[in-house]
């Protein structure tokens, strides 16, 4: 067995995320027998000595049938209404299913803001920790009814990876309707007409070269791209990831013998760099010329005004901004040292042309993270 699988199999604390497609269908809503099978597998892992936090999608999926809607809503207000109906059913179903084992469940609803904001972050951490010490299972979901387009998590894959980071979990398990990462969407033939093949282990970004991460099904939201982004986020915080089918939950949780595993990076990203890359919301962007992209994103130098060609957004000193190249691709992120209007006055000028109070780099190398 590979080292990564062994680490996941023996992880003391794990976060397990279950996608909408694994728990709900369009016509019948929540599938209780599938949920019971998942709870059996989770309970077996807990009986073997692991602490488990569940991140459960499915609120919108569970709210579709009771509201008489025929497909997954696309507008925010209907999604939020469906989530408010479905979350009640979802939390109740988790509670009833775990009650078969006399296990108590606590519902934890979070938004992206709760992870970026230090005070909320500490509260969420404390609640999760206390639920664990009381032997209750936390069932986490995005707080859909208060989340807006701007602040909502891209999806629960990201939320699950942020929760794994928050509680310093030893492993993250993503359970979906697909049995792992394929070279392309397994529902479609690849560009050469051949079927996509399963990738058993991803050791680093090079293993993803040529992989096509497509969109999700009728009920899922994130698709494979969001699972890869979540795996990267977890890997940056030193957490290995297993992606498997919810139908294989028993094997996935027993010995990590199924699906695709993603190795954690050897050294965790520092807390500051992690926050810049993953938690903070970007409030603007700076366009960099080719020389600045090379210096900053590849050679990790500080960003000077001379390499910036345009500035967008209304940010203040201390905010996080995206760094984009001239083709519009995001190449990194950083904490900007000046307000947007100061940056606008400085761009394209060499340091000795600038007044003495504007001679610090626009972004210091320690505050920069490549994409
Ligand atoms: N490269 C790929 N490998 C595996 N699945 C892929 C890939 N590209 C796209 N997919 C699709 O992504 C789907 C899983 O995403 P999604 O429906 O959002 O799941 P969930 O509801 O579990 O979050 C799979 O059913 C699969 O069809
Ligand atoms: N929070 C929402 C959607 C979450 C979501 O990311 O869905 P999925 O891609 O199936 O994990 C819900 O519970 O329906």
From TrEMBL:
EC numbers on record: 2.7.2.11
GO MF annotation terms: ATP binding; glutamate 5-kinase activity; RNA binding
UniProt keyword S-adenosyl-L-methionine present: no
Residues reported in the UniProt entry to bind substrate: 57, 144, 156
Coiled-coil region: none
Record: residues binding ATP: 17, 176-177, 221-227
Reaction equations catalysed: L-glutamate + ATP = L-glutamyl 5-phosphate + ADP
PUA domain ranges (all copies): 284-363
Compartments (UniProt record): Cytoplasm
Record-level GO BP terms: L-proline biosynthetic process
Pfam families xrefs: AA_kinase (PF00696), PUA (PF01472)
Pathway: Amino-acid biosynthesis; L-proline biosynthesis; L-glutamate 5-semialdehyde from L-glutamate: step 1/2
Cellular compartments per GO CC: cytosol
Kinase as UniProt keyword: yes
NCBIfam families in the record: proB
Function field: Catalyzes the transfer of a phosphate group to glutamate to form L-glutamate 5-phosphate.
Membership in a protein family: Belongs to the glutamate 5-kinase family.
Entry protein name: Glutamate 5-kinase
Gene: proB
